[in-house]
Batch of 4 targets.
Target 1
Amino acid sequence: MTDIHRLTRNLHRRNDSRIVLCVSDGLGGLPMQPGGKTELETARTPNMDALARRGVTGLSVPVLPGIAPGSGPGHLGLFGYDPLKYEIGRGVLEGLGIDFDLGSNDVAIRGNFCTVDEDGIITDRRAGRINSDIGARLCEKLDTIQIPDVEVFVRHVKEYRLVVVFRAPGLGGDVDDTDPQQTGVAPIPPHGNDDASTKTAGICRYFLDRAAEILKEDAPANLLTMRGIAKKPPIPTFEEVYGTRAAAIAVYPMYRGLARLVGMDVLDAGNTLTDQMTCLERHWDEYDFFFVHFKYTDSTGEDGNFDGKVQRIEDLDSAIPAMAALNPSVFILTGDHSTPAKMKSHSAHAVPTLLVADNCRYDGSESFGESVCRTGELGQFESKYLMLHALAHAGRLDKYGA
């Protein structure tokens, strides 16, 4: 297997170029009826279409053909990290996303408050999407749990989401999720897949038993499930492998965590797309590479809201001029995976990708959408190679060989 980072370490060079990677989460879609248009093809996107006429298009495969990726693997691929080599637990990403300093003795867990009935059966996996004030108060209660020989940290993330960190020597991070991903059944008991992780699973069981006692009067958030139980792995940084000063402009904690994991500076992105564009302009002269994340094309897709996803794509299109006005050397627009409203979930479909630079080999694209991207210059490629395209078009790679 080609070691991409060994190659880029040897070939990267610094210059004054600027690269913008704009990730519209879950961008790829499907028509609701055979022969129809996808969400992206339905949306009015004059600014994206104008860029397509100046650039090249293609379809990126986040992991492998046929594999529907999570957001973690999807983004790592876009950042040029082989998602099959670097498996990152959701708990680690959530912890880093709220600026929790994870150490070598820490196991991080993504928690979801949920609703269970008197028989312990899950009736709502997200506790009615409780607001953040309630979630924060419940996390304060859980943060009082004490476990012998283990430090326990419980931190609120947003709404029904939280992070639990256990700190102790000898813990493993290979523990199965307790979230069954459906209602009408009980949470799955924690199970470790090696000796160290079996120790962690025991701690999880103890914590969940205490949590059930503490939360029993707090319906709809009267229990929690655990996901992405993991330790932080060693991973090379963006500057090490690409020679770039990189910054992330993302609102949601998980994506901020992904960026921090690979050594990007995580900027104060505010709460809105307008805030993100203001942040980008404010810091333009400080960095070489900017990761700009837009969440809502994914959430509307998962809700099965075709028209809502169309509207969110149009919202993002309205922000394109602000990014283009900064005249980046390379501008890339893509997604970390496809989330068709028709399927209400992440899918294995390849993702529309657009790259704009003055040295593009223009491919005649007149618009930006799945059908056009299918015949574009970039072809269909694994997303882990996207950073090579970005660096090459930015003049940041030396020639390979004599």
Target 2
Amino acid sequence: MKALVTGVAGQLGHDVMNELAKRNIAGVGTDLKEVYSGVMDGTPVTTMPYIPMDITDPESVRKGIIDTGVDFVIHCAAWTAVDKAEEMPEACRKVNAYGTLNIAKVCEELDIPMMYFSTDYVFNGNGTRPWEPEDAYEPLVNGKNFIKTMLNLAKNHTTLRVVNDQIGTPTYTYDLARLVVDMALTDKYGIYHVTNEGDYISWYDFACAIFKEAGITSVEVIPVTSEEYGAAAKRPYNSRMDRSKIVKEGFEPLPDWRDALKRYVAILREM
């Protein structure tokens, strides 16, 4: 069994590769440039085969997947900078739409599974009901590590403005990687909504929890509306996800987000 993982320069791709290694499953990492060495977020990066691959280039994708002889693809590469996406929509579309299509075509041709990731931004962001996997898509836009950002800002700020009207649940890529590999080893194909378990919260609530966990008392977090904050890209107000399908299909859900936050802050302290 061998997997090809795209986007290993990112946090999710990195964690997926490490999860494969923990289970003695062969993995091949890909990205635009070789970054798969050293340490990331306090954990050693797994030593595994690496190939450069440009997902926006159909021939690069075709060669990469065929030459490595993998049994399935876990596609983690994506353009996730939403404000920049508003400025450069075609560049974003080239990566997220056409890049994904290039991989899907080769996987279809070879008849091998492909797992890839979307975003809460595919929904219209309204209402309060948790989104179910079968809900219709009404995209806002194409959707940095928030914890690191908050802790870095705390080094030279005494007050921070954080939106309190965008509601969802955080997701720790380390936990997600475990579920991703669990799923990839089955034939339970379909659309799943995955976040860490726990109550739904706003970004303001999350920021407060981060500083409490890190023992930081010198920063005042001020709740503001999305309109007051004024980001370039429109964010969804409602990012509540219905995660029940995970359990229904026999998979182990992710731990509570507060547990995930505690573990991640502990890792950052050791860096």
Target 3
Amino acid sequence: MNYQWYPGHMTKAMRMMQEDIKLIDLVIEVCDARIPLASKNPDIDRLANGKSRLILLNKSDLADDQVNDAWVKYYKEKGFGCILVDSRKSVGFKNIKSAVLTACSAKIERDRKRGILNRPLRAMVCGIPNVGKSTFINSYAKKACTKTGDKPGVTKGKQWIRLDKTLELLDTPGVLWPKFEDEQVGLHLAMTGSINDEILQKDELAVSIIKFMKESYKGRLADRYNINEELEDFDILSDISKNRGCLIKGGEVDVIKGSKLLTDDFRSGKLGRISLERP
């Protein structure tokens, strides 16, 4: 299955981000805690070269606790600020402000020496599609998102959000990169929902999920769907579909409907906390 997906609007969005980066003090990249490598856009590393950085591992409630901690350690050793967050419940938010100030400490000190005081820090919030970037911004801003008007970004359709006197956020569209060199990256993005499902073979994706679960989280499929994990992967998918009543006329098993059910359960955490990648 081909996992490549790079619609034209992403080229335009990246071009706009390149124009705006000169206005920015800090780049906040929102990644999916289940796939901290696959969900980290290499183009953003190039875009943010020389800027202060903060990585938010969102959806941390869906990923393995111990693996989460290992990823935070991994990225901190790489020189990034890194915080685990669950944007739906505002978990981890209390650590963000101090992390922003730490990441921008050199910039704040330079401004102080030049007599520039109380100028708000400007952070670009970016990430690939479906990592929960919009949920983070709305939750962090407590849904009181107000535009600040004297910025070039406003007239280009992007949104500046003033949180308080010390911090402004620039919202940006979710962008991928033109070509996934590693097929595993594309698979992980597809499994977690960052690639348009319409271009994917739903049964092939479900079989990939089954294969991963059997290898890394043995027993969970059997517990949830009352199936035999020793069967072949497609036979397991067929049994899951049958057991969950995914049938068409004549009692034939509808594996496409079953595939969607399994994929939704996997993505929403109904199969338990899952990390697809480990440092």
Target 4
Amino acid sequence: MAPYDLEVERAVREVVALGAKKVMIQAPDGLKQYLGELCKSLEAAGVSPLLSTEPCYGGCDVADGAPVGADAIIHVGHFKFGGGPDPLPTVYITAKHLGGDRDLPAKAARAMKARGFRKVGLVSNAQHIHLIGEFREALAAEGLEGVVDGETGGLVLGCRVGAATAVEGAVDALVFIGGGDFHALGVALACEKEVFIADPYRGEVRETAQMKRRALAKRWWLIAEASKAKTFGVVIVTKPRQMDLAMAERLSSDLRRRGKVCYLLAGGDVSWDRLVGFAFIDAFIVVGCPRIATDNQECFSKPVLNAGEALEVIKRL
């Protein structure tokens, strides 16, 4: 049995209700291995599944299955991102995590109490947002208060951490419930208060302070290096929910007014393999998901910044 709830019955029911005959299924790489049952159930309902081999980074990265004849999309692992229309009718499956350490809420509560915190902000990702209630109860059992943003319910995305910043002023620290460092680092970089990870996969509570210091040191060094560049490439990410043509043009114009040579580039997949061929460019600015630059710098041989960091460069010129 898959350790995630792919809501197979709901997914099939909604796809059939849409009248779809062929559906493209997209999921993050870590969830692709669990899609077999969903495919079999779709086929049993008379719907042909088509599995996307592309990486999937969030609800901002919905596939367009129309070129291969898909009538609908099943997007696994994320909530819908933004209010705009989807390329095709899309069913969102958040893939709730079914496993994990059941004692983790109590562990986290004891850890927060041991550090002298009284009010703790709680945030999580799509796979673990259902655990926030358990964490609030565990904190209350230790005499602490768990604080959750009412508008978002505590949900954070890679680049949207308003659930954390909204409550930061009312808490002593924040706890991100989920695995890995990706979401937690985004929260830590956006907040001054200490951020901890309650990891259901590893059954541990860990700090983010050292990770944050390393990330900030690296980003400020890259900003300084990019400030020395003579030639910039401003990369427009063409994925519909990431594309910001106005910002790309603004950055390009500002750089040129400061005497820099600037080229506009465009593409859906931004990686060093795609950028390395432009050897005449000294530094790149990715106008799209801000985490493309911050999370992949070890793969880049030249400074690669996001739009916010580029604005800091422009202030220095």
